[in-house]
Structure formats: C-alpha cells, structure tokens
Amino acid sequence: xxxxxxxxxxxxxxxxxxxxxxxxxxxxxxxxxxxxxxxxxxxxxxxxxxxxxxxxxxxxxxxxxxxxxxxxxxxxxxxxxxxxxxxxxxxxxxxxxxxxxxxxxxxxxxxxxxxxxxxxxxxxxxxxxxxxxxxxxxxxxxxxxxxxxxxxxxxxxxxxxxxxxxxxxxxxxxxxxxxxxxxxxxxxxxxxxxxxxxxxxxxxxxxxxxxxxxxxxxxxxxxxxxxxxxxxxxxxxxxxxxxxxxxxxxxxxxxxxxxxxxxxxxxxxxxxxxxxxxxxxxxxxxxxxxxxxxxxxxxxxxxxxxxxxxxxxxxxxxxxxxxxxxxxxxxxxxxxxxxxxxxxxxxxxxxxxxxxxxxxxxxxxxxxxxxxxxxxxxxxxxxxxxxxxxxxxxxxxxxxxxxxxxxxxxxxxxxxxxxxxxxxxxxxxxxxxxxxxxxxxxxxxxxxxxxxxxxxxxxxxxxxxxxxxxxxxxxxxxxxxxxxxxxxxxxxxxxxxx
Length: 498
Description:
Helices cover 29% and strands 22% of the residues. It has helices at residues 27-40, 67-75, 91-104, 143-146, 151-155, 161-176, 180-199, 212-216, 250-254, 289-302, 319-329, 355-368, 404-410, 467-473, and strands at residues 7-16, 53-56, 81-84, 110-118, 224-226, 229-230, 240-249, 265-274, 311-313, 374-381, 386-393, 413-414, 427-438, 444-453, 458-463, 482-487, 494-497. A hairpin with a 5-residue loop joins β13 and β14 (444-453). The protein starts with 6 loop residues before the first strand and ends with a strand. The model has no long low-confidence stretch (mean pLDDT 94).
C-alpha cells in the first residue's frame, strides 16, 4: 500500500479565440489547444502523451459527449480514466477536487482537466452555435442538472440566470437599507474594479475598463435586462474560450516542472449542494449555506484560515453572487484583497460551464510566478445551488486529500429544508423579492414577485401590466409590502397587485 501523495498543479493554459478568426475551432479543438498550452508550462510537453486521466467540463455551446475521447486521440494518449462533467459552473473545481482525490490515493498520477466553449456567431449566414440550455437538452444530459427552475417558475417567467439572479440582488438591496442610487453605486464600483482587472488580463474577452456610472446606467450599449441589472452586470456568455490544467502527484510534477517557477499545490477542496434546490424553495435570498459549507471544507482540509488567503476569485456571474460569497465568508467591503483574478464572467468572459477553470489557471500562474502565495477560488452552478471551492498555494500541504471528494459526493447536501410552495395562491401575500424583465427596446415586459402567503407558503406571481407599478418597483424597494393575489385556473398564472 502506497502512502498518500500530495497534489500539484503542474501545468496550465488558456485560449481566447478572437471573433475575427476565419477558421474557428469548435469546443474540442479549443480544448486540445488549451491542453497543449498547459503542456508548454512543463519542461517536457510530451508528458501529455503519458496522461492517465482526462476530465472534461461539459460544453454548453455544443453537444460533445465524446470530447474526452477526441482530446485523448489528438494528444496521442490512451488514458485509463475518461470523464465528462454534468452541467454547472461549479464543474471545473468539482472535477479538480475529484482528480486530486484520485491522485492523493495513488489511483492516478497525471490528470488533465480541460474545458471550452465556442459561442461566437461570426457570419450572418451561419447557424447560431448550439446551446444545451437555450435550444433543448439532449437526452444524455443528467436531468437534475439540466433544469434550473420549477414549472411554476418557468410559467411565470423565471427560467434562465439573467432572469433569476436579479431576485437575489433585490433582496440584498433591501437588506442593505440603502436607497437605490446608493446601492447601485456600491455594486457598480465593485464591478468597475472587475472591469479594470479584465482590461489587464491577456485572455480577457472584453479589455475595456468601465466606470461605475457606465455599468449601472442604461444606454444604447447597456440596456436594462432584468431589474436591477443592466447588460454590463450580466455574464458575457457569447465568447470562444478554453482553459486546461494538469494535476500530478508531487513526485511526477518535480520531474517535469520548470525550476524558475514556484510549485503550485492544491491544498484542499470542498463541494456542497443546497437542499433548497430551486429559487422558489429558498428561505433567504441573501445567504447561501452550501457556499459557506464548501469553503469551510476547503479551508479545513488545507489547514488554513480565510485570513491566510492572499486573494480570491469568487464566482461572478452577477454582482449578487460575489456579494453573497463575501457575506458567507466574512470578507468585508474594505478588505484590500482582490475578489477576482480575471475580471469575472461579465468582462473576462463567461464561457458556459468553464469560467472557473480560467480562474484556476490564472491563479496557478500568479502563484508560480510569486505574485501570490495562497488563494481561494469558488464556483457555483445554477441559482446558488451547487458550490465548489479550492485552495491553491506554494506552501507544501500538511494533510492528505485522500477520500475528501468522495466524502462530499456521498453527503453533498447542506442548508435548510425547502420552503413549501402554494402554486395557486389567492388573497394577501408579502413580497420577499422581485424583478422586472425588460424588452430589447428598454420597456418593461413583465414583473415577477416571490413572496409568502398568509399561511407562510411561497408564491410566485406576475405583476399586473401597469406602468405605474413598474415605476414603483424600480424606484423604491417594495420587499415587505403586501400584495393582493389572484390565480387564473386556466392559464395557471398568479397575478399580484399592490
């Protein structure tokens, strides 16, 4: 029986395929290119032909169930372990946690984790890239991960992230006690800092630094999407990007790592899923118990505290995701440590499931070159449902990671039991959060309210189509206000009136 081994991030690589590319690569092609770049960080790139594991982040821009085989074939390797993830932005870090577990147990020695998306439509006469979320889910996708909302939520207009995450933000706004202008300035300032980071990142899709005013103010280039978010507050998903990392046993990494680089150890990871699976089931839209659980697991396994982190990359699909991560980890507003290493999904790019792998590759590069010693990365899937965390450092670990990912897989649930739902409410209700979804011409299309009935049950309702109501909801925080509910037994739609 071999002793458990430590895990090293031995190689990393990133690719951004510009929009003007004449013969663009598809996701597997981009994965291969990223893997080759990861190999170039080693003294011997031929290590790629000796991989014994390949783990692929499932693309959303194209259905590629055989991507691990395509990558292996292109690299000239026949690894004994091939795997492709489910849907979710947590997937890269979750795969790294799993790969580290296998290496720590001496079941594998060299593992490639790779992912890519190719969403860019380059010519008017070419079809749009496939999208597993927007154009139908292939049967081979795991059903649980393919669904982001319940039927009652979808019926009322909450289905995709751009519609759902604003509900968290409205609740956070209410909890802040600030007027809307001050609250938007606060999150706009944070997002402006993210844009500046992206402007200096060589693989960022958008390398334009934006002011808080530009980000929070609707304009021709920055339309309102779903209150309180404009386009610049949303993840930028239509990108072509790829990233790859190579994890190895400490012994294997020492044999092929460049001497002028610091070693990058994977100290610990964590994973947790929310018992409150869907938005409609959440008891508090300003917290995430599973996020805290995942981070706490990673810290405990690393034997470190949050104060020992030099930097963070909090998953940043929308500002609320970062705000909740700060709240759950105890990072204050005046903490000088960076919250992003890339610029986040809105500026660096939000390549489907795979953004988090870019954060990890960026952190690995910065640790290897001495900019930081230790950093924490988080990732999430769906509406704050699945959470993964990882800690990377130049300091050698003191603990083994053997069995940690397996333990998380066996007992993944965290948080509170789901809130019971009334799908046909009538009478009085209390607003808990809400959003207004806008048309491309900047006019309100519909509003959606989540709240509680007098019996304490959750309801989801459309607002009445009333310009005065839209103005009221977008001017002053209406959380806590009483509404009157009616339910149409034919359409199954509930309508809320102030």
